Amino acid sequence: MKQGLLSYSQFHSLLPIVSVSKSIIFPPISATLESACSFTARERRQLKNERREKTAYNWKEEVEERLSKKPRKRFNHWTEDLNLDYLAELGPQWWILKVYKLSCHQAAQSLTRFLAENYPQFEFKVYAPAVQVKTKLKNGTIAVKPKPLFSRCVFLRCVMNREIHDFVREVDCVAGFVGSKVGNTKKQINKPRPVDSAEMEAIFQKEKEEQEKHDKAFEEEQRQDGALDSNTNPDLASKDVLKPKRRSKKGSTTGKDGKLPPLGSTVRVVSGAFAEFSGTLKKLDCKEGMATVGFTLFGKETLADLDLKEIVATTN
After folding, report:
1. Among 312, 308, 313, which Cα is nearest to 249's?
2. Which one of 25, 165, 185, 229 is at 20 to 30 Å from 87 when CA atoms are compared?
3. pTM for this predicted structure
C-alpha cells in the first residue's frame, strides 16, 4: 500500500514546471543587476544627468528668447512718456475725438471754424463719417439729412503736439481724445492714440457702401411711389404737378367795408368757416392782418383767429 502511494507521480510532475518558471523569470533580473553594478558611481551620475537633460524643460532659453523679442522702452524715464510734443514725430495722423452737445456734423463744422481762425497756417482735416439720407416730404421736396456712422465721434488729421491738443480740448463741443492712460500713481494723463491707415481705409469703404445702399433704397421707393401715382391718377402722370402756393399770413389792415372795427365791438363774419356768425372782437393784429373774435357756442365762449377781410362791423 505504501509503495502505491509513493509511486503516485502528481507531486513530482509539478517540479519540472516550477523549475522552468524560475529559469525564465530570474535570469534577466540577475543580468540587469550585474550590468548596473558594472558602472561606477561617476558613470551612473553621468547617465542620470543625460536622461534628465533629454526630458527636462529648458526655461532659460525660452526666457532669453522672449526678452530678445520684447521691444525696448522708447523713453528712459516715465515722465518723458507724458510729454505730448513727442507725438509730432509721428507726422500727420488721424485722431478720434469724442463730442457732445452738438451732432457730429455740427461739431465738425465748429471745430473746423475754430482751428481755421486761430491757426490759419496749420494744415488739418476734420472728417465726420456720415450717410446722406434722402427723404421725400409731403409738399414734394426732397430733404437730405446726414446720418453719422459712429455716434459722437469725429476724426481729425493733423500733426499733434501739446499746443494743438490743449486747444482742441478747450473747444466747447469736444469731450476729449480717444487714447490710453499713461504714467503711474503720481501722475496720469489720457494720451491720444493714432488710428492706423488700414482702419481709416476700412471706414472710407464702409461709408461708400452705406451711401450706395441708401441711394438704391431711395430710388426703389421713388419708383414704387411713381407707379402708385400713375395707377391712381393717369392724367397727372403726364403733367407737371405745380406746388401749392403758400397762403400769406399778411392781410389788409381794414375790414371788409374798409373800416377798422374797435376792440369790444360786435362784428359779423361774412366768409369762411364761421360765415354769418356774430361775435365780439377781442384782439387785433394789424401787422399780420388777423383778428381774434369770441363766439358763444353751446353756452361757452370760443375764440377764433380770422382774417380782417372776413369780418365787418355791425351797425346798431
Report:
1. 308
2. 185
3. 0.50
